[in-house]
Amino acid sequence: MANLTQTNSIKALSTDRTEAHFSDWWELTKPRLSLMSVATAVLGYFAAGPALDLSLFFSLCLGTTLAAFGCGVLNQWWERDVDAKMERTADRAIAAGRISPTAGFIYGIALALTGVVLLAYKVNITAALLTAATVVLYILAYTPLKRVTPWATEIGAIPGALPPLIGWVAAGAGFSSMGWILFAILFAWQLPHFMAISWMCRRDYEEGGFKMLSVSDATGRQVAIKALAWTIVLCLISLAPLREPQFGWLLLVVSLVLGYAHLKPAIQFVRDPGNVAHARKLFIATLLYLPAYLGALVVDRFFI
């Protein structure tokens, strides 16, 4: 194990590039993951059905993007020593030494603070406070707790579920029940999503010293059962918006179809947890579920 870790570190430091390029600064922001969070905030905004204010909408998009980018950078700054030990992350710019920890920290703080301040001035203080809470919980709770307890996954699902609520309150809908339903849907969605990832990447997590359930569960059965349990919860919560008069048959049909597509690989994972292919199918199902469900929520709200 020590030799593998050393080899990964050497590989990262012996890359063809020893100085940071633009792509390094860009990848530090974890753009794919960050922009998914922004997309859920935008869909939360539209789900509230506001009269479109282009200035406010643009500020919501930019503010949440900057804050999400800041989270991505600060996460890599905090975990630079762990990233250097894992093959799939050893070439990240801070872990590989192309960007200094100090520069990475300043970059992340600047992005996050700019995003929160922009939301406070151009959207509303509630959206800004929720965004600040997202950053703080993600960096100061979820990130360090991954090395301490498997429950870090549930804790990390809290900041991960806040973006649609941020979009909802940005639209002026306040803390109404539908906003919290969106929060609950995102919370439940993350658990099977991350259970699948953690089983596929369990060797990396073990090398990095993360206290993930997949590391302590040698058979994968506990991981699979938790994934199935939260899939069932997700399917049930996804029907909750139907009690609101603005949602109807389209959301019902999409919820049932997506629920089946999500449940099938989750059940297969429980039946044969040792087969990584089932975890991969569940992971793909989660990727398809979220945009399809939230998209149906908006379409049903405005066009049906």
TrEMBL record:
Annotated transmembrane regions: 33-51, 57-78, 99-121, 127-145, 223-240, 246-263, 283-303
Keyword Disulfide bond: no
Principal subcellular localisation of the protein: membrane
Topology versus the membrane: Multi-pass membrane protein
Pfam families, per database record: UbiA
Catalytic activity from the UniProt record: heme b + (2E,6E)-farnesyl diphosphate + H2O = Fe(II)-heme o + diphosphate
Cellular component, GO annotation: plasma membrane
GO molecular function, one term: protoheme IX farnesyltransferase activity
Assigned EC number: 2.5.1.141
Domain of life where this protein originates: Bacteria
Family annotation (Gene3D superfamilies): UbiA prenyltransferase (1.10.357.140)
Pathway(s) the chain acts in: Porphyrin-containing compound metabolism; heme O biosynthesis; heme O from protoheme: step 1/1
Cellular localization per UniProt: Cell membrane
PANTHER family, per the entry: 4-HYDROXYBENZOATE SOLANESYLTRANSFERASE, PROTOHEME IX FARNESYLTRANSFERASE, MITOCHONDRIAL
Family the UniProt entry places it in: Belongs to the UbiA prenyltransferase family. Protoheme IX farnesyltransferase subfamily.
Name used for this protein in its record: Protoheme IX farnesyltransferase
Species of origin: Oceanipulchritudo coccoides
Taxonomic lineage of the native organism: Bacteria, Pseudomonadati, Verrucomicrobiota, Opitutia, Puniceicoccales
